[in-house]
Amino acid sequence: MTAAQTLADATPIPRRRVVSWALWDWGSAAFNAVVTSFVFSTYLASGAFVDPEIVAAAGETEALAASATVISTALTIAGVLIALLAPVLGQRSDGSGRRKLWLAVNTGLVVLAMLAMVFVAPAPGYLVFGAALLAVGNLFFEFASVNYNAMLVQVSTPKTIGKVSGFGWGLGYVGGIVLLLLLLVAFLQSFGVEGRGGLFGVATGADGGSWDVRLSIVVSAVWFAVFAVPVLLSVPELPAAPGRPRVGIVGSYRLLGSTIAKLWRTNRQVLLFLLASAVFRDGLAAVFTFGAIIAAQVFGFTPSMVIYFAVGANLVAGIGTFVGGWLDDKVGAKTIIVGALAGLVVAAFAVLAIGTATNLFWVFGLALALFVGPIQSASRSFLARVTPPGREGEIFGLYATTGRAVSFLAPGLFTLFVGLTGDTRFGIIGIALVLLAGLVLMLPVKTVQRAID
């Protein structure tokens, strides 16, 4: 593969480079599964961070809802910053010969934020600090993802892009399973010894400093750092474009405006897809971000039960993603996206309808996980197919921006319904409405797109 590899070139890609690229997805499970979804976010939403004064004044349910609101607010702020900065940062990496450099820098900043989470002690005074680290991690993870996703066209061909994208996403879910099981055995499972977790017997619970959770995040940070290295070593950097003009921040926003205007004139279908994906991807993020919180606060899942559920969710999601990636190259990305979104909406309302039936939550919660991965993978391959060579960073940056431009929707609606009812369970209504809106917006998008000029 030459450094100028694009989707217009059908030259087979060496398997080693594909695997090296996908290992970043494998490593990213340390952030997606452990930090955002099942361990750290659940830890922050636990009773250890509840203000006793709120409990005394309004009750435990309202106090838990208040802590969930702090977390969702921090994520909303991160979303605004991503919306403002992602396309410009992606654009500035295009043609600069520094795409891998910025992937490395932003991944490193995510790892540093994860390492700092070890200092989040189980006390109400640390809630804002923990939520801020969660937001910072999300911010730089999205910046890293812009450059990582832009590299998809460097490790695939027109006939394999769906499969390669699905392979990466699926490997991420498998990595989540392996890491979660490792953490469960090492730190999180009690094995019958009260106050001690895992084979290392670390102190658990707020009284013991919750070192089981805090050390799990440290191991996860190291995990991400190690598996982010292969893509930096094995996938060639694109050379700097000759004669590429150097522009400042203001000039970068002007170029971005020019790109959007050109899309509006020549290919509005791409903008329609970006709008639809912005909405439904916000719903997808909420499924995992708030799913663990709902499991813990509504269905009474213990930290160990949350991990077991996480393993099952990642297994189901991985299977769905591998199958979806294989089907993507055969039936088209839109078919995968629409079908999976419909399944998500049905499963979300089913979770609401079952009340507090834990056994049924396992069924419909895993059904939610089944559909998430195929949508994420198919969305990435859909956009990569219509992106011109040398513009991947800018377009995937725009993809990140549109995704974050409405990132207040799911957290905001989740917060609204929780606030109106005083019950975390009803937050699922907000998530379901966002997914349904994304499905409706996706229906008019044409299957065959004309490449962006």
Q: Can you walk me through this structure?
A:
- The protein has 453 residues and is mainly alpha-helical.
- It has one domain (15-231, 249-442): Growth Hormone, Chain: A.
- Helices cover 73% and strands 1% of the residues.
- It has 17 helices and two strands.
- It has helices spanning 15-38, 40-44, 52-58, 60-93, 99-116, 127-150, 161-188, 211-227, 229-234, 249-266, 268-297, 303-331, 333-353, 358-385, 392-405, 409-421, 427-442; strands spanning 196-197, 202-203.
- It has a two-stranded antiparallel sheet with strand order 1-2.
- Strand 1 and strand 2 form a beta hairpin.
- Helix 11 (268-297) packs across helix 15, helix 11 packs antiparallel against helix 17 (427-442) and helix 12 runs parallel beside helix 14.
- The longest helix has 34 residues, at 60-93.
- The two termini are 25 Å apart.
- The relative contact order is 0.17.
- The model is unreliable at 1-5 (pLDDT under 50).
Indicate the topology:
Blueprint: H1 15-38, H2 40-44, H3 52-58, H4 60-93, H5 99-116, H6 127-150, H7 161-188, E1 196-197, E2 202-203, H8 211-227, H9 229-234, H10 249-266, H11 268-297, H12 303-331, H13 333-353, H14 358-385, H15 392-405, H16 409-421, H17 427-442
Antiparallel strand pairs: 1-2
Helix pairs in contact: 1-6, 1-7, 1-8, 1-11, 3-4, 4-6, 4-10, 4-15, 4-16, 5-6, 5-8, 6-15, 7-8, 7-12, 7-14, 10-11, 11-14, 11-15, 11-17, 12-13, 12-14, 13-14, 13-17, 16-17
